[in-house]
């Protein structure tokens, strides 16, 4: 290989850095040893910051055994993270490098601006299109599964009643009733988990097309007669009239349940209000509301994001970043998502050469660097 060929974009296998997450309560790591072993077969070098897996109970020795080396991840061609980078972390990224992770492009535009100014190509995991071909890269869904599962366990912990029906010598205890508002991935997992624990489950969503999915889990469907199906699998924002009617009907329905779990979110906007204070007041003492939309303001009027409060003898919990509470499996699932996206932009030599005609890459990329553009053009010229 000549000196000129050595400098050709795409000629050298990429190095991939895995830094330690430093956000409060964040225990996940972007790549795990099992996934690193697979990535190493593409030719890339993996550099893991010392202690990167400590929150997920993965020691450095497990990473090195998988073929990674411990070192400075910020000097790599590609850096993979979980949480959006801080200003300090962005400053450590090299111009022309690539960052993959949750970047919050809709709610934290300053992060995207900083990456663009730094000359970094940023790929946001939450921007991966929800199409069949990209299911293996859908980190929102993989992490939402964890949230839905954990939410039910929290509800069971706070509830003053059994979830399953119990027949004892002292008599029979009726099963708890659980209502899940918003039946996307998290909601469906919540319904399935509550059902496994023995509760009588009911699901509600403004997208009536998901009713069959709810029923397939053995749950009942709460039909309020409102249709707000939107694009990309998300619900559209309700009109003022629809919102008022929804709140009125939900207020009447919620009082009959022991547990209410809310998961409704509209990307880039404040979470829709579904549970009023009056609805909570009407619930039986000892009941529980678990609000998974706290980071976007909450679905419940009484929600205090990140807190567990008691109102009208009803517990209202709004846990933040539930996947971080189950870091082992959350990290494993997320690492597979990251790996699938990364492999999509690697050429046969293990170099990062994104094909901007690919819908997945074009949609998930929120900033492009001159280096990534140049690599693509060089590859086109060689073909």
From TrEMBL:
Residues 156-318 form the Alanine dehydrogenase/pyridine nucleotide transhydrogenase NAD(H)-binding domain. CDD domains: Rubrum_tdh. It catalyses: NAD(+) + NADPH + H(+)(in) = NADH + NADP(+) + H(+)(out). Keywords: NAD, NADP, Nucleotide-binding, Oxidoreductase, Translocase. One of its GO terms (molecular function) is oxidoreductase activity. This is proton-translocating NAD(P)(+) transhydrogenase. The transhydrogenation between NADH and NADP is coupled to respiration and ATP hydrolysis and functions as a proton pump across the membrane. Its EC number is 7.1.1.1. InterPro entries: AlaDH/PNT_N, AlaDH/PNT_NAD(H)-bd, NAD(P)-bd_dom_sf. Residues 1-23 are annotated as: Disordered. It comes from Streptomyces hazeniae. It holds the Pfam family AlaDh_PNT_C. Residues 17-147 form the Alanine dehydrogenase/pyridine nucleotide transhydrogenase N-terminal domain. Signal peptide: none annotated.
């Amino acid at each position: 290989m000549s000196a000129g060929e050595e400098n050709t974009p795409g000629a050298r296998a990429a190095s991939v850095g895995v830094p330690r997450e430093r956000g409060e309560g964040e225990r996940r790591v972007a790549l795990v040893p099992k996934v690193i072993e697979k990535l190493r077969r593409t030719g890339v070098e993996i550099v893991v910051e010392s202690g990167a897996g400590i929150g997920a109970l993965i020691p450095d020795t497990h990473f090195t055994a998988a073929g990674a080396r411990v070192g400075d991840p910020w000097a790599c061609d590609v850096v993979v993270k979980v949480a959006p980078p801080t200003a300090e972390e962005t400053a450590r990224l090299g111009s022309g490098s690539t960052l993959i992770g949750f970047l919050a492009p809709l709610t934290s535009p300053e992060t995207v601006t900083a990456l663009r100014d730094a000359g970094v190509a940023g790929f946001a995991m939450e921007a991966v299109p929800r199409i069949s071909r990209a299911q293996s890269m859908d980190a929102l869904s993989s992490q939402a599964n964890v949230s839905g599962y954990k939410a039910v366990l929290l509800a069971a912990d706070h509830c003053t009643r059994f979830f399953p029906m119990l027949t004892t010598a002292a008599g029979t205890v009726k099963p708890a009733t659980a209502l899940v508002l918003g039946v996307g991935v998290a909601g469906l997992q919540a319904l399935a988990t509550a059902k496994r624990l023995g509760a009588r489950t009911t699901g509600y969503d403004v997208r009536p097309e998901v009713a069959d999915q709810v029923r397939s889990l053995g749950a009942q469907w709460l039909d309020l007669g409102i249709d707000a199906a939107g694009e990309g699998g998300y619900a559209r924002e309700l009109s003022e009239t629809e919102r008022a009617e929804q709140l009125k009907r939900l207020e009447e329905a919620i009082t009959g349940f022991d547990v209410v779990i809310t998961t409704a979110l509209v990307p880039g906007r404040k979470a829709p209000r579904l549970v009023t204070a009056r609805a909570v007041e009407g619930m039986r003492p000892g009941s529980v509301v678990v609000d998974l939309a706290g980071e976007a303001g909450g679905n419940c009027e009484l929600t205090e994001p990140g807190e567990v409060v008691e109102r009208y003898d009803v517990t209202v919990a709004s846990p933040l970043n539930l996947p971080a509470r189950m870091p082992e499996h959350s990290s494993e699932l997320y690492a597979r998502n990251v790996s699938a996206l990364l492999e999509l932009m690697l050429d046969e030599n293990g170099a990062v050469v994104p094909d901007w005609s690919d819908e997945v890459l074009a949609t998930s990329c929120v900033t492009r660097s001159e280096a990534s553009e140049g690599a693509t053009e060089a590859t086109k010229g060689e073909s």
